[in-house]
């Protein structure tokens, strides 16, 4: 039976990859997408998601809008580095037809709470943006905090951050929310820069998508070529672009692709190390399942990504 998932996306380019991966997997059933801010505003992010779902022939997937800014701020502005890496529209400045449908009525927070109540352990929430929506659901519902199974792309335990020397971009947007999520969750898996930067995509891969001869294949090839070019400027030593968000989806699909370190985590929320993800010395008991990705079978993952993408883009 396919595993039920919900994606919480700030739909930039790697979120678009995560979306296609989920739709292309025979082992996953995507119930809905909730939208957050980060790579783009929440409004732009949900618009991107709706457009991509239409492009991928899945207009049946509902999309919900979440909070538009961090829990300790009054507003949100996209970081300049995010504009550079993801483009002005979040999807590499590629022109994708705007969807005629809109977001679902009701909040993403209420939807997540209801979904966990309905599906329990059969559902995994994959969060690839700031933790604001998930943390708010936890604050609103103790049952959600105790019963939600969460895989989140964020943080860095053994490597530097990508916004500051300590802070990864998703955690950097709302450190108190990430801290609350990590401390309160009973079942959480952190997929951070430790492993995502070991998984790379190159223009040889995107040429395969372009060769499919489909609108979706061309669009995704254009988006990822933009992303790869941005990485050539910001991290030329990698030789490609990091596959951050789709790796989190892959971990929810089959966690054997990852080497895990069982470890309770927290986030520094003030001082010069604000946004640092680090072990939580106060919560080391057996009552919670908290683990951090520290290794990945990159070759197996990239091969699986290409299989999933071929299905989704066909």
Automatic annotation (TrEMBL):
Q: What class of enzyme is it?
A: hydrolase
List, alphabetically, the CDD domains matched.
nuc_hydro_CaPnhB
Q: Where is the Inosine/uridine-preferring nucleoside hydrolase domain?
A: 5-302
Q: Which residues form a coiled coil?
A: none
Q: Which GO terms describe its molecular function?
A: purine nucleosidase activity
Q: Give EC number(s), comma-separated.
A: 3.2.-.-
Respond yes or no to whether keyword Transferase is given for this record.
no
**Which Pfam families does this one have?**
IU_nuc_hydro (PF01156)
State the name under which the record lists this protein: Pyrimidine-specific ribonucleoside hydrolase RihA
């Amino acid at each position: 039976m396919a595993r039920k998932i919900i994606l919480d996306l700030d739909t930039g380019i790697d979120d678009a990859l995560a979306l296609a991966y989920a739709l292309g997997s025979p082992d996953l059933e995507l119930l809905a997408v909730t939208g957050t801010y980060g790579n783009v505003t929440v409004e732009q992010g949900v618009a991107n998601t709706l457009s991509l779902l239409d492009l991928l022939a899945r207009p049946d997937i509902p999309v919900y809008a979440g909070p538009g800014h961090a829990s300790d701020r009054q507003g949100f502005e996209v970081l300049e580095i995010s504009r550079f890496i993801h483009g002005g529209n979040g999807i590499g400045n590629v022109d994708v037809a705007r969807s005629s449908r809109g977001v679902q009525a009701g909040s993403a927070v209420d939807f997540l709470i209801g979904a966990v109540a309905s599906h329990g352990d059969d559902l995994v929430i994959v969060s690839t943006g700031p933790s604001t929506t998930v943390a708010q659901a936890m604050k609103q519902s103790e049952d959600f905090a105790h019963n939600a199974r969460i895989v989140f792309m964020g943080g860095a335990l053994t490597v530097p951050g990508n916004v500051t020397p300590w802070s990864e971009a998703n955690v950097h947007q709302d450190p108190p929310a990430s801290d609350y999520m990590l401390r309160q969750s009973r079942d959480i898996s952190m997929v951070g820069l430790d492993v995502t930067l070991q998984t790379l995509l190159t223009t040889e891969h995107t040429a395969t998508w372009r060769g499919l001869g489909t609108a979706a294949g061309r669009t995704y090839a254009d988006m990822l070529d933009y992303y790869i070019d941005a990485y050539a400027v910001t991290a030329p030593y990698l030789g490609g672009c990091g596959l951050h968000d789709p790796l989190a989806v892959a971990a929810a699909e089959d966690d054997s692709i990852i080497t895990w370190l069982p470890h309770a985590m927290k986030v520094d929320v003030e001082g010069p190390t604000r946004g640092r993800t680090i072990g939580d010395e106060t919560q080391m008991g057996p009552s919670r399942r908290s683990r951090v990705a520290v290794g990945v079978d990159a070759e197996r993952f990239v091969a699986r990504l290409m299989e999933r993408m071929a299905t989704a883009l066909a």
